[in-house]
Fold this protein.
Amino acid sequence: MNRDKELYLMARQALKHAYAPFSNFTVGAALLTESGEVFTGVNVENSSLGATICAERTAFVKAVSEGQRRFSTIAVVSGEGAVLPCGICRQFMFEFGNDLRIITGEDEDHLKVYGIRDLLPEGFRLER
Ligand code: THU
């Protein structure tokens, strides 16, 4: 099985852990590091709705807090099928590189691939 398909299926597998009692819109993500490790994430909603975190950022926060900084691809899927990252997640992901690939799709045989630069042209970065 190719790596994109495998990653997509891992994102879909993660869906079952999504905590989305308010929107009922479950999302799963699987983030592949350049070194070949995978970190999954789900959306975790909160009674204080603005405290909700998306699946993509959950995956990134898990990975970065385990020492990862370099990423190759993130697969994202919702309980309803394909989904694209929200604006906050696009900016969050952009922090870690211009070359991230984002994949989603209605199913594992119909994947769509995007580059972070396509989804967020001219993202914001503070000079370091
Ligand atoms: N959500 C994600 O987790 N990722 C996305 O790409 C889009 C939106 C979540 C946030 C919230 O829990 C629910 O989907 C509805 O917006």
The CA atoms of residues 63 and 96 lie 11 Å apart. The chain has a mean pLDDT of 97. The beta strands are 27-33, 38-42, 71-78, 101-105, 111-115.
